[in-house]
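Re-run requested by the PI after the first attempt was lost when the workstation crashed. Everything re-entered from the original request form. Ligand of interest: beta-D-glucopyranose.
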Amino acid sequence: MLHRCITVVLTLFVCAVSASAQNLDSLLSRMTLEEKLGQLNLLSAAGENGRPSTDQVALARAGKLGGLFNVVGAENTAAVQRVAVTESRLKIPLLFGLDVIHGYRTIFPIPLGEASAFDPDAAQATARAAGVEAAAAGINWTYAPMVDIAHDPRWGRIAEGSGEDPYLGSLLGAARVRGFQETIFATAKHFAGYGAAEAGREYNETEISERTMREIYLPPFKAAVDAGVASIMSAFNSISGNPASGNAWLTDTVLHKEWRYPGFVVSDWTSVAELIAHGVAGGASEAGRRALTAGVDMDMQSGIYVDSLAALVRANRIPMAVVDSAVKRILRAKMRLGLFKDPYRARTAPPIAETRTLARRVAGESIVLLKNDRATLPLDKNTASIAVIGPLADNKAEPLGPWHTMGQPDDVVTVLQGIKSKVPASAQVTYVQGSGIEDSSTAGFAAAVNAAKQAKVAVLVLGERGDMSGEAASRSDIGLPGVQQQLLEAVAATGTPVVLVLMNGRPLTFEWAVEHVPAIVETWFLGVEAGNATADVLFGDVNPSGRLPVTFPRSLGQVPLYYNHRNTGRPYDANNKFTSKYIDSPNTPRYPFGYGLSYTTFAYRDLKVANPRVKATDTVTVTVTVANTGTREGTEVVQLYVRDEVASVAPRVRQLKAFQRVSLKPGESRPVTLRVAARDLWFYGLNMKRVVEPGTFRVYVGSNSAEGQEAVFEVIR
Ligand code: BGC
């Protein structure tokens, strides 16, 4: 019976697929060349108040538009959709895109912050919630997740991704794709290598070997493809001279031929036209030809495909088959989304209050406790007097971060508000701004110092403006901006214990604080619930469990600095000058990848590899006992790293291969089991083929990438 049912279901599925394939072919056969190129055209709404312009509506009517983005509100999307599906000759519906990055109206932590939670379920939940809110506003396609791996904190867009690790980045990217795609289409971006911009300077060229591309930058895209991502956005940067938006190796060979990616590729904003500035095309039609034949199916904002390519197709300089396969990919996506049956997709979102509960929980998980000497934290709610100081302490705009879509400052709970809501009315909470974020005035210092002198503890909330990270926001100095460092020093000089709360979109350098301030909390940009989540941690209602998804350097001079580097032929040796090091700085980071403290302590013991000799098709099972050795319940992120001891290509010193969030009561200990499939121990060999080489592997299990218990296992033939 079961067998029959499966057969029926499969038959229905096959019938449905071939029915839509037939529909697709018949639709394609009725399209003029101009209508085909129209499907490849994507424009940002250029009218008033989030509406498309009259010209854009006319394009929709003429069948010269495949989609619009930045249209605001369900009424506006419905109005132009009505034109497309009732007034255009073939009645093909439009896609409506938007950068829903970390929330639509309810803003969650920036992706880099959320990555600190090491919690794919949380990432999926916030993406789902963002998708639901966006869908209610007529959006059916987001330009997220950004899955670019980044090693350089100067690059502002490090804020939009999951940090430096391809394994963590793959899990979170795939989770976000699944979350968004419960309601709207997702886009994995920017394909590929954008995060390797030289010197961290936005849009800069990249020099990436094929091996590094395949081992570090591509895996999160592959994970997104495996999770069923509907679209992929090609990047702005060139890779060893070949711009990503006209790079047939990336978008055709790897994506379509190797990975059999069935979705479509959309360019980044005018990245097709930018092939001219890159110097690989002499004019618009050459740029369009290169991009389209490379596999970039949809042209965002250049207008080149629709305006300049018909003549080239007619002159046989672009095969019609290339146009047809791009059009088919886009039409297939529209079918998959159900747009032909339900072009308006009217949806309602749950009340914002419900989504905020999720926002507060995930924001709490995203906070990383970096330092906590003498148990400065958590604060006692009955502390008689607290000075809350700093340009970000009562700021409602910046916690929304660099790309906050429809997020409203009025929705944001500030750190000052969060603190006030925790303490009894009798407590004296004094707020002084002290300085601006970037300006040079020290006029507010005296009041700040005065407030600190009168208080039992001073909470300083310092960091960056939201728009100091994100797109076009590279920094050549990653210290605290403006006079905030001096403000911190002046307040610390009072002798009142200082808690430094950081709000920022990238790793910062703050060596003075590390030496002089007893407690440091990294909060990133946490979104609408920033103040509540921060106060939850400051007062111990939430025990911090976030771990850094990116290395924090001691100084910018160490950058690029990441944990999964190779060993060199002369690894660091303190007693040997002629080894790989600086004469003026340690090699080690300020805080390593995976690092984060808790209000309790954890101990590891009894690391065991259950099967220390495995075949390449087997899975290695590792167990370790983790104990909560402190006095509070807490969550540890148990991390497993692997090192290939000898390989034909110099192996990386460590690579994250598994992790697990484990909650333990005080005194509780528990065996934790982590598994690594031996096939995941691959790298690209000398012949540039993916290989798992037999031999000994060292496994490390612990609290971060710089420590851990060790054991070995062997992969045998
Ligand atoms: C960004 C993309 C974004 C696009 C559309 C570009 O400038 O690089 O990440 O999706 O604009 O807004």
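Saved to the shared folder this time. The two ends are 43 Å apart (CA to CA).
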